[in-house]
C-alpha cells in the first residue's frame, strides 16, 4: 500500500478506535462511513477513494440515504 493511502487511512483508524466508541452505533449505512472510506481508498486509490468517502459522508444526515451501500467494485 502506498504512503499516501496509509497517510489517509491513519486518521480514520484513530477516529474508529478513539472517538467513534464514544458515540455508539448511530450510523445510517452499512458499512459505516469510516469503514467505507478505508475500503474505497484501498480499492480505488488515495484520491478517488477519498472522494468516494466524502460523497458517502455527505449522504449521512436525517434526510439522506440509509441501508446497505457497498463500495463500487472495479470492473476487471
Could you characterize what this model shows?
With 76 residues, this protein is mainly alpha-helical. The chain has one domain (3-68). It is 61% helix and 5% strand. It has helices spanning 3-23, 33-44, 46-58; strands at 29-30, 67-68. The protein has a two-stranded parallel sheet with strand order 1-2.
Give the strand order, joined by hyphens, for the main sheet: 1-2
Helix percent band: 55-70%
Work out the radius of gyration: 13 Å
How many angstroms does the end-to-end distance come to?
20 Å
Mean pLDDT metric: 91
Quick description:
The protein is built from three helices and two strands; from the N terminus they run αβααβ. The chain is mostly helical. Strands 1-2 form a two-stranded parallel ribbon.
Amino acid at each position: 500500500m502506498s504512503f499516501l493511502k496509509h497517510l489517509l487511512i491513519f486518521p480514520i483508524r484513530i477516529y474508529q478506535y478513539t472517538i467513534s466508541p464514544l458515540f455508539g452505533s448511530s450510523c445510517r449505512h452499512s458499512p459505516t462511513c469510516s469503514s467505507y472510506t478505508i475500503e474505497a481508498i484501498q480499492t480505488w486509490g488515495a484520491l478517488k477513494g477519498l472522494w468516494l468517502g466524502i460523497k458517502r459522508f455527505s449522504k449521512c444526515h436525517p434526510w439522506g440515504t440509509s441501508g446497505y451501500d457497498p463500495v463500487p467494485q472495479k470492473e476487471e
